[in-house]
Amino acid sequence: MFKGLNLRNICVGLLIFSFSPPFSISAKEEAGKDEGRSFAVFSLNNSFPELSKSKVRMIYKGKVKRINKEHINLVDLTEDSDMKADFYQKLLGKSLSQMNGYRASLAFSGKGNLPVTISNNDIASILDWLEENPNGIAYATIKSVPEDVNVLFVLDPEE
Amino acid sequence: MHTSKICFIATTLSMSTFAVNAKLNLTDDISLSGFGSTSITRSNNTTPLYVNREITDNTCYDCDTTLGLQGDIRFNDNFNASIQVVKRPQDEWSSPVLEWAYVGYNVSNFNLKVGRLRLPLFLSSEYYYVGQAYTSARPQQEVYNSVLGITSYDGISGTWDIEISDESYLTVTPYLGIESDGEVNIGQTQYNFNIEKTVGLNSELSGFDYRIMFNYAYFEYAVDVTTPKGSMKIPADDISIYTLGTEYSLDHWLLTAEVLIDKMHFNWYSSIAYNIDKFTPYVTYAESHHNQKNNSLLFGMRYDLTTTVSLNAEWKYTNARDGSNGELITTPIDGDTDAQLYTLMLNFIF
């Protein structure tokens, strides 16, 4: 039934269709839900410098493993956290499903630097973990972060 | 069929038992993790489709069944070791293979590995058997199956991580393999490869939203071919394989393309996927030239049930051209050289 069918033309048609407005609009609507929440990426290690957005993106993609030649450790929030979904959407433009698939590839290739997930998302638990991990890096809403930490980067809602 | 169903049920049960928490950290420096895939699949062609999977028009419950265990040990900031044992689709449960086992040494931006290592031919080579890590049910067979499922080498590799800027990184990995053996069964024919030499260079330029990978690999090998009628030795030969892969993600979109070129193949695919929360529909178009001539179109949908479990539903149409068998593993007796393939795949990690 498909003999002689020009698959290439069908494929080109599908690509054009998939870029059509309805899909693009739905993407914008979803991103628009997240507004008004700034995040701080921070550490208790005062030797870490201020970081660019590009650098922070590469850190959370697992590609940057060292700062100042020191191996860094990342801590992450639990999967059910709205803040976690918000953070990755704003920083990398990715849903948690996309991040989980990507991180499975890192975990089983041994190539990336994967975050440790702690059981409590409150700022006290994050700070406890940072106390135990001198080269640890965390993220939280900027309002919840104490003043005496080393803020490496601020992710504004409009970014 | 009875054994197949038992294997399928056993795999599903093991998934539901372990998949609650991905990765078991025995200590801060020792971890045990695993992955698996299992499917219900069927083609509408009586001739088996895909080397190592052999899917026919009989509903198959274990053509894709894969289960792997990986142990990682970090001795200190410099030394680590990793071992991965996999029951691949073509293996019996009683005879899984050691896919990799190596000791790694890290210093600054350099990483040295010695042991059994994964051949880094493709974008997804390092996680070839981890279905949870890529969007489609199987890696695109036109490209990934053109090396007949030979995925590892015994030897040494060195990787340099080079920071070009805050936005882009380059990794360069030369590698060298010593003599090793591999076995591939295609229908009733068995090919025993003796790979005498492996030399290669892998490079990857990447940013937060893209990857561009190039790999060159050179192999010297000899093959013993065994059929029901007897055995024969094919004279020693060599082959150079060039592969190029690109991946670009833009918000919800993921675009992927890979090409493999050697003296027997010019195979490529292009794929587009769009993520909507837990759903990811995708379309792939692929072509093969030279030895294996076909084109194919694939529609699929991935659904992420949890962070560690996903489902794929796929339909693929593959059409052999110019008298070739295409992706069918033998010449079809009835002359039917196209096939529609239906797949429901479950992937999990733990």
Task: Write a concise keyword list for the protein shown above.
A: alpha/beta, D-Maltodextrin-Binding Protein, domain 2, two-stranded antiparallel sheet, globular, disordered N terminus, B: 350 residues, mainly beta, Porin, 16-stranded antiparallel barrel, 2 helices
Question: pLDDT average of chain A, as an integer?
Answer: 80
Major pleated sheet of chain A: 5 strands, mixed
Low-confidence stretches of chain A: 1-5, 10-34
Strand residue percentage of chain A: 15-25%
Secondary-structure element order of chain A, N to C: HHEHEEEHHEHEE
Specify the structural class of chain B.
mainly beta
The share of residues in helices of chain B is: under 10%
Biggest β-sheet strands, sense, barrel of chain B: 16 strands, antiparallel, barrel
Q: Biggest interface: chains and residue counts?
A: A-B, 44 and 57 residues
Q: Class by helix and strand content of chain A?
A: alpha/beta
Description:
The complex is a heterodimer of chains A (about 160) and B (about 350). Chain A is of the alpha/beta class and about 160 residues long. Chain A has a single domain, classed as D-Maltodextrin-Binding Protein, domain 2. Chain A contains 6 helices and 7 strands; from the N terminus they run ααβαβββααβαββ. Chain A has helices at about 5-20, 20-30, 55-60, 80-90, 95-110, 125-130, and strands at about 40-45, 65, 70, 75, 115, 135-140, 150-155. Chain A has a 5-stranded mixed sheet, sandwiched between helices. Chain B has about 350 residues and is mainly beta. Chain B has one domain: Beta Barrel (Porin), CATH 2.40.160.10. Chain B has 2 helices and 18 strands. Chain B has a 16-stranded antiparallel β-barrel with strand order 2-3-4-5-6-7-8-10-11-12-13-14-15-16-17-18. In chain B, strand 1 and strand 2 (about 30-45) form a beta hairpin. Chain B starts with a helix and ends with a strand. Classes of the chains: A alpha/beta (about 160), B mainly beta (about 350). At the A-B interface, helix 1, helix 2, helix 3 and helix 5 of A face strand 4, strand 14, strand 15, strand 16 and strand 17 of B.
